[in-house]
Amino acid sequence: LNVGQRVSINLDSAETLQTVIGNQVGLLTVPLYGYPAPTVTWLKDNVPVTSSADVTSSNDVVTSSSSYIVVEEYSGVAQLTLNTVTTNSSGSYTVVASNTVHNTTYSAEFTFTVEVFYRPSISLSSTVQLLEMSVEKIPCQVSSMPHPSSITWSYNGTEVEQLSRPGVSFSVEEMVVDTRGDVPIATRNLVVKGARLSDGGVYTCKSSVFIVDQFYYAEKTINVKVVSSVVVTSQTESVDAEEGIEVNITCKATGYPLPEEILWFHNGSLIATSPNVQIQSTQVSFKQRSSSLHITSLERELFGEYECSSSNIVLGQLMTDSYLVSVFEETQAAVEKSITAKELMIIIILAVIILVVVFVVVVMLVCRRRRRKQRDRADFQKMEMDSAPRPNGAESTLRADQQKTGLIQIDPSSSDYRDVEYVELDPRVYKSDYSTRSFKPMPRKKRTAEYATIDTAAASSLQDDSESRLI
User: Fold this and answer.
1) pLDDT at residue 187 in the model
2) β-strand partners of 76
3) Residue 21 and residue 19: Cα distance in Å, rounded?
4) 176: helix, coil or strand?
5) Range 68-97 burial, b when 16+ CB lie within 10 A, else e
6) Are strands 135-145 and 185-193 parallel, antiparallel or unpaired?
7) Which residues on neighbouring strands pair with residue 101, listed in sequence order?
8) What pLDDT shows up at residue 453?
9) Helix, coil or strand: residue 12
10) pLDDT of amino acid 205
11) Which of 81, 147, 207, 372 has its CA 20 to 30 A from that of 357?
12) Those residues with Cβ within 8 angstroms of residue 51's Cβ, 6 or more apart along the chain or in another chain
């Protein structure tokens, strides 16, 4: 007796499978029940799946080994294995199982959703050139699903933000994520300001992404070369010479990459060496060349302009620089020097004129001040002599030497001598105050080396301001 059982799938709801590109998925497994054994068909996004290198198939039906694996008499499993997960592996996978029982066909289906995540993949050039002393950016692009949790830059194991170099600044911009494509692309730029040749080397960009239940990492290195345009220099600006002497001119070309050989020109024409004119070139370092022009005996036709020139290729462009050295005859050099001497003489003459004017002004001011002081002193002496009183009995013994000092003196043989005290007017001269009858020091400019005597008895006998006087 043949008893049939219609096909059925013992799963309640759809499932979601998360996987990473490059992984093998062998867990699309569906338990089946039915007798006779069901026929299994797999669909992806409602399109039948055919056998390929990415999907294992057997007996023209996509399974891990066969379309139907018998476990018991009335049960089995159907499996689909994705050998290599690619960007096209994501989507909906549906298993359709069918069998016929008593001339009736039965079917059952179940759908998986496969989400494919992308390991971080870094897009970074292997070599980059930075122009010396400029501001440059180096982008690091990371493709991943989901987008990276971090992107870092380092140099010899040290994060660039921690690098400390004089005159050079390293920084990293914020991460920017572009989601317009199928796979998000995150970019983080390394910014270098003021780089020098010594800042070249190997820099590393690292990224990490958390997918499903673990971190995935990626890193890539880039060789940074700092380049500089050629610069040609010389310690000789001009040469004052005469016929028959020996002349040597040296030029140096500095830059990276190393400049080409230095070429010499005379009055615009390339110099060809001869027994009298020799050129010697040497490489000083990885970034500098030196070349010397040697003229054994200077001839008249060798006077003129000499130019040393060199070039190098920087950022794909040919960079050239040159330096001019003039070789003059002595007569011509003397003319140029005389012109310079004339200019210097004019400057000296102008400076002398200015100094003379300043001196005259100062002398005039000093003389004016002295005349004013002398006039004030004469007026003061005249006023004091006109207002001086004559005490009783003392007029014969007091006299004023008005012409010399304007000071009052007393004859030592006088009977009033006992009441006189002497005051030295160097360094002090005393002036009486008309209201308080006190004596105050006069300014130093009005002092004199003369001596004066004061009749204290006569001074004390003064009773009103009209009799007050200057001693």
Assistant:
1) 95
2) 32, 70
3) 7
4) strand
5) bbeeeeebbebbbbbeebeeebbeebbbbb
6) antiparallel
7) 104
8) 41
9) coil
10) 96
11) 372
12) 57, 60, 62
Q: Say if CB 23 and CB 116 are below 8 A apart.
A: no
Length of the chain: 471
What is residue 430's predicted lDDT score, i.e. its pLDDT?
43
Helix (H) or strand (E) holding 80: strand 75-82
Other Cβ atoms less than 10 A from the Cβ of 218: the count is 18
Structure token pair of residue 449? 């080396």
Q: Determine the residue type at 218.
A: A
d(CA 143, CA 424): 107
Beta strands per DSSP E along 167-301 = 169-172, 176-178, 185-193, 201-211, 214-234, 238-241, 247-256, 263-266, 269-270, 277-285, 288-295
Query: Nearest to residue 270, comparing CAs of 306, 296, 216?
Result: 306
The DSSP code for 333 is H
Can you give the pLDDT at residue 33?
84
Spatial distance between the Cα atoms of 197 and 133, rounded to a whole number of angstroms: 9
Instruction: Report the alpha-carbon angle 51-57-62, nearest 5.
Output: 85
DSSP readout, 365-417? HHHHHHHHHHHHHHHHHHHHHHH----TTTTTTEEE-TTTT--EEE-TTSGGG
Q: What are the tens digits of pLDDT across the range 90-145?
A: 888 888 888 888 889 999 988 888 888 888 999 999 999 999 989 999 999 999 98
Phi then psi for 289, rounded to 5 degrees? -120, 155
Radius of gyration of the chain (CA): 56
Q: How far apart are CA 301 and CA 296, in angstroms?
A: 14
CB 18 within 8 A of CB 82: no
Instruction: Please tell me the predicted confidence (pLDDT) of residue 296.
Output: 93
> In the chain, which stretches have pLDDT less than 70?
1-3, 24-27, 51-74, 330-341, 379-471
**Angle, CA 269 vertex, CA 266 and CA 271 arms, to 5°:** 65
pTM of the shown model: 0.55
User: What DSSP designation does 74 have?
Assistant: T
Angle at 14 between CA 182 and CA 73, to 5 degrees: 130
For residue 84, give both structure tokens: 């290599």
